[in-house]
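Subject: Interface between my chains keeps coming out wrong

I've been trying for a while to get a sensible model of this assembly. When I model each chain on its own everything looks fine, but I need the whole thing in one frame so I can look at the contacts. Pasting all components below, labels as-is. Any help appreciated, I'm running out of ideas.
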Amino acid sequence: MADEKKAVEKNIPEIPKGEPSIKTDVIDPISLMQYDACTRCGECDNWCPTLDAMKRDMNISPRDKIGRWRNFMGKNYGLMARLFGPRKIPEEDIQNFNDHLFHCTTCGACGTVCPAGLNTIEMWEATRQQLVLRGNGPYGKQSLFPKLIGEMHNPYMKEQKDRLLWVPDDVKIADNAEIAYFTGCTAGFNMQVLAVSTARVLNKLDVPFTMLGEDEWCCSSALIRTGQPHIGDTPREAAIHNVEALEAKGVKKVLFACAGCFRAATIDWPRLMGRKPNFEVVHITDFLAEQVEQGKITWEKSLEGKTITYHDPCHLGRHVGVFEGPRKLIASMPGGNFVEMERNRELQRCCGAGGGVKAGIPELALGVASARIKDALDVKADILSSACPFCRRNLGDGRNSVMSLETGDFNKRDNEGNDMQVEDLIVLTAELMGLSTKIKSET
Amino acid sequence: MSEAFSYYSGVPTFIEMLSIAMVAILIFLIGMILNMKKWGGGSIKAFLSAFIKSASENKHQSIVTSLVLDILLQRRLLRRSPFRWVMHMLIFIGWGGMLLLSLVFAAFEMLSEIGIGSFDLNAIRNSFDVPNEVLGYLLLLGLIIAIIRRLVLSEVSKRTQIFDWVLVLGILFITVTGFIAEGYRPDSVTAWSFLGADAALAQSLSLFHVAISLLFCIAYIPFSKYMHMIAAPLTIIANGGGE
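Reply #2:
Try treating it as a single job with all components included. I did that and got this:
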């Protein structure tokens, strides 16, 4: 009865007798094989950031989730299922599995440490999509993403015509240039300090850049990460739209200051389009590291003896492999004392915002962020830097929670009076280059 | 067939031995077909195409490097836990080594049976005694470590399932039966010779050991945790390997 009630609540069609309870048609064969490759060693559990934040509730352990889905597949597609027909899997089991699967930031730490080399990010995302198609997923407010991103082209209910409202008078944007800056929804609408800092740094470096402006659509990362890429085919449309618009401008290089957009443009867009774009995709930290190496950056201020640490965003580091650019940039900043947190680079602890967790399960996001803040406090960091708007927001929330601070205005630079500042590298770069980081409304 | 040879095999005739092996291989193949169909959404071709595509696209390193460093030497596990690496390598080398020796000897047997070549099977068999013994102990040591780890470490113990125990205890049982069968051999020179010389019992036990080895270590692979032995290397190749 409980199963039937849950299924009705979730609007899940009744499975005809003799039919499998689950399907696997949108999960790629390699991911399905990987469910059988797990050796159940449990190494993933040692590194899972959500498992730590959930007080080791083993229902959300990567190993257990793999085991449960493998059992589901065995019941529906294994030897006994072939001989005697698929066994019905209780709806409650599937729904619980779904909910536990969405208690994951898709940070990929589990796959990084897996001795069998499982690509867990692909497994989780594909399985989420299968469960969304079935009617079990997504989780909480994640269900708003398709409508918002599909119709508004951003997840914040903003108008496309307002895409450039953040641009202050002093910023020069070229109509045409070899380099484009893909702002992203968060920096453009809700975290404008990142956009103004990026633009001013590029202006100062005499790097002409253009933008898509009103023609820029959300990268759709949130839809892909939460297993909803099929709804309205929005990610594919967005990939085609953005890539074709950038190609029409004739750009040769596109800079991203958002790790989520960067991941989408590097991995998801080519996959969705079936081809690589005719331009280079570069994260701003790698670009600035190159500028440092070429001696083009002149620092006008110093970090004044502050201890700075760096949090690798999952989408920038583990997902794509950008680890050293941000570190080269920090190393070049004068007057600072750079320290690594114990977990860094590919073994970093996720900030907690990814995989739709910030929207769907905010208390879990906060729990993971708090753990990361403690990592930074352990090395006595005065500045916790990162290179992703979502990390900045969630680590900021974590810092405020751990240090009992009031929620600040994430549109603006973090309060320099905070005991530990949580700030993006592009903002720190702008400041140390002697540039204003004030957003338009402050000028 | 010489008496000594018949005795060694533990099976009255080569045909019976071959029959058990064929049944085991057939079950294994059926299981693999079912698994590949499961992975390929009902189509083996779909799985193989996806695998070849993935392996050719994800080229962080050569396949040879993946085979040697990631699959045979298991460097990903070494990086995470030298202790578990030692444990797993003992099992891997012991199990794999004995499988390899069994296959080589089976090949000699087969060639002799069909009349290709003339081999001194007893001499070949005897030359395998020491390596088999050493490999057997490596396997036994690895299994003992694995069992103690699962019993003693509370975090590991709590998460251990029947799925895990069946494999470890199954191989342990087979390993021990192998040593016992060896111990009853009249010409046994192993530590297990204290069991006493009993040619008839040794032959029966040897038959039992061979049969359960083939059924558990070959036929059972696609239906158990054993499957990781095939799926994990394929995963490493499909994902391009690397640390």
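Reply #3:
Confirming on my end. The mean pLDDT of chain A is 95.
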